[in-house]
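Why do we care about 3D structure at all? Because function follows from shape, and shape follows, mostly, from sequence. That is the central idea of this module. The next example makes it concrete: a single protein chain, its amino acid sequence, and then its structure expressed as tokens.
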Amino acid sequence: MGVGSSVLVFDRDATLLATVEGTDEAAAAAFDPSTGRAFVVRQDNGDTGSGGDNDGSLAVYDTTTYEVAVEAVLLPGNHSQLGSAALTVAPGGRTVYVTSPAEGKVVELDRFVSPKVVQAPTDQTVTVGDTVTLIARAEGTPEPSERWQVSTDGARTWQDVPGATGTTYAFTAEAGHDGHRFRAEFSNTGGTTRTTPVTLTVTADASTGGASGGSTGGDTGGDGGTTGGTDGGSTGGSTTGGGTAGGSTTGGGTTGGTGTTGGSASTGSATSVSGSTTGGSLAATGVGALGTATAAAALTAAGWLAYRRGQGRTTGGPAGHGDTE
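And the structure:
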């Protein structure tokens, strides 16, 4: 319920749960059950002599915490001198339509949420010939695109990896990949977000051979005898000794190979900060509906584009493109 510039929140038993304050009159509200958010249109009173500025706004609140969920969007020219504004919210809360009786127009606002990384790759240590698998995921509105990038100079410059545009990037490790750094980049209308770079360490696939040796033995021999004399005699015999001989073997070895990363693109320095917006942003993008259209403008840095709807001609505003890392 709107009372002046305040919004009063009641439960089904008419018990007051919270009061949400604002600067302009609370004219109308709508809810999106799927996101649990409330959309509130506020209108200026249109009395510039008493401090009015003729500009309204659209605010978005979390219905559980009653806190602001999305930065308020300015609605220039939307005041209450010729009637109260109304609004409707498309399922999912991505698109909102707001009327402006003073201008005879309907404004369409589309919600954009810059990519937010929900899974990032990690440093890896592998052996030459192993399969390297890097995985990264992000969420945003609209669904962000993804591409993988590689740096061969300690993250000073980055190149797109040809064909690596999916959630998973896999390749065979080569010696030349050692020390390379990798990251995933996500982009949509709301902005660009990158994962923190990770380092690949590649070790050589070394194997060793063994050796065994033998010994040689010589031979010995001897003879001996005795003689005795009286009437007869006897003679002694002789004995001989034998020997043994041993052999030897030699050992072998293998060497590792080298390689380079696949493909290259234009190089350039890149600096950005990983991160994303939490609740997204609203921007006006528009097509005419009720009255004479005016130029739409990007209303917030975070992204809502406003569409002004009017007879006869159509105007649209640009979509902002931020770059965060």
